[in-house]
Queue: 2 jobs
Job 1
Amino acid sequence: MLTVSTRHAIDPVSAKALDTKGLRDAFHMDGLFAEGQINLVYTHYDRMIVGGAVPGGAALVLDHVKECGTASILDRREMGIVNIGAEGTVSAGGSDYAMARGDVLYLPMGAGPVTFAGAGRFYILSCPAHHAYPARLVPIGEAKQVHLGEAATSNKRTIYQFIHPDVMPACQLVVGYTQFHEGSVWNTMPAHLHDRRMEAYLYFDLAENARVFHFMGEPSETRHLVMKNEEAVVSPPWSIHCGAGTGAYTFIWAMAGDNVDYRDVEMVGMEDLR
Ligand SMILES: O=C(O)C(=O)C[C@H](O)C(=O)CO
Ligand SMILES: [Zn+2]
């Protein structure tokens, strides 16, 4: 079964006035991963689609999505898929890709219907594309690593860049995930902004009772959302996006927009956060 919901783009003036439910309705995404279902959220932030596919006992096929206005979802889009579950297979464009936990798959524009099978829990990201680059399965050993933070500031972490210009070409999709060293809980702190790209975070590997307090908003108007395991949040281009966990977690970040330069960010000074 396929479900698709829509998130419209919210401006910073409107966002200031939202209460907890309003913020969650606008930015928070849950229920993406349900056995036997493909659940997508079509956002109007650079038209990024965020979703999940959990085939369980029977293969699931992702093909026509009315919101995209094309016969098949990848007719004018590219896609990144991250397996956060056990071994599974994704098939597209006449090829089968066996995906272990943590593997990332890039599928280009024109790859056709996408089939999900096996015990995988597949996180899906898709944005408009203008060129068909080669499909590629990227295991963690082929990702580029960036080491950031310190144990003393509880933010020592390794950023793994998969769909990234230093690893492989893509049109506008940039995808990777961030793992923490023991005891570090803060992601993306010091915080940053990137007006030329939206971003979406999926928090996973959380224990049942653990939560991530995710911070968003303009630096002078921050708000928080409390996130459980396998919940996602969309970050508008005007918003910071960072968080602290009450326990261990991993998060997948994905961006789309005007450029693919990961370093094209504006750092936010601690003195500017409110
Ligand atoms: O922990 C971090 O710092 C990140 O992973 C940052 C994200 O990758 C990001 O926000 C990229 O713009
Ligand atoms: Zn960012």
Job 2
Amino acid sequence: MATGGIGGFLAVKLANSGHQVATIARGNHLAEIIKNGLILEGTSGIEVAQPWIATDDTSKVGEVDAIIFGVKGDALETAARACLPMLTADTVVVPLLNGVEASDRLINILPERNVANGVAQISTTIASPGVIKKIGDFDVFTFAERDSKPSERIANLQQAIKDAGSSAPATEDIERDVWSKFVFFSAVSGLTAAGRCTMGDILSTPELSVLFRRVVSETADIGRALGISLGSDIESRIWEAASALPKSMRASTAIDLENRRPLEIEWVSGAAARLAKKAGTTAAINEALYALLLPYKHGGNSSA
Ligand SMILES: NC(=O)C1=CN([C@@H]2O[C@H](COP(=O)(O)OP(=O)(O)OC[C@H]3O[C@@H](n4cnc5c(N)ncnc54)[C@H](OP(=O)(O)O)[C@@H]3O)[C@@H](O)[C@H]2O)C=CC1
Ligand SMILES: CC(C)(CO)C(=O)C(=O)O
């Protein structure tokens, strides 16, 4: 659930390493998957997978072991309800959305025993109906039970993803990992989208570098105020990692903005602003980035 950048990538990899994979998709994307298979254009060539089932009707899938949950933030509730027919008491639902609220939002709809927590480091997109495109060489999926305790179902899914060629490291603190990506992403997303710039621009413009580092500190402080054990070196580690990113890199938010698609800002800059209030701290820069992107939230032109 579903067959976008995240779900489509893992569907191809898992199906081609021998697993029974159902791809939930709709419209032209589904029609092309049924007709030609699901195609992954990666840096090392093209792979095609024939899903076990490709459908927009989850009641046709039956009960499953695991659900890779990868829809955009605004689609979470509807997609979660559609997962209900596929659950047994042991099915694990692994959210890989950006932001820090997906797992908590899922337990409002799905039984808590079914819901895990997770985060993805990858850059993939639906290039055209039936075709997923991967950019770059990184594909790391970090996930665990909500309380981070080891479990067989998490270990099995990690092993399956590793056998399929990606990275799925074990973690002793999934909340910290989800927040670490959020701290990084709040800066990359907010600046490359609101600033219409690339990581190269951020790294080569001292004023933008300072702003990037301020967003990172601001979001990290929100996490710390909420009790997340982010560590005192997260700011420097993120800056080091950011400095090594490809110069042309932009967040999916910036690419969505350019393509006039809806933006996930409610779950990134907007979430930082909201969570700061909850934590009793401030988030002036995240608030500003959120406000600058708000006119474009629903896609299309600005509301002006
Ligand atoms: N792609 C990436 O590289 C990364 C993505 N992420 C995060 O992962 C999440 C998913 O991103 P991504 O995979 O790129 O998103 P995509 O937009 O590529 O894919 C989401 C898919 O979900 C489908 N969908 C939504 N609701 C339903 C539903 N009820 N039934 C069936 N299909 C549905 C959409 O179909 P339709 O078009 O018909 O609405 C779309 O095909 C986001 O939070 C993103 O920020 C995190 C790290 C990297
Ligand atoms: C920054 C990146 C590519 C890291 O996975 C990402 O999550 C996104 O752009 O949505």
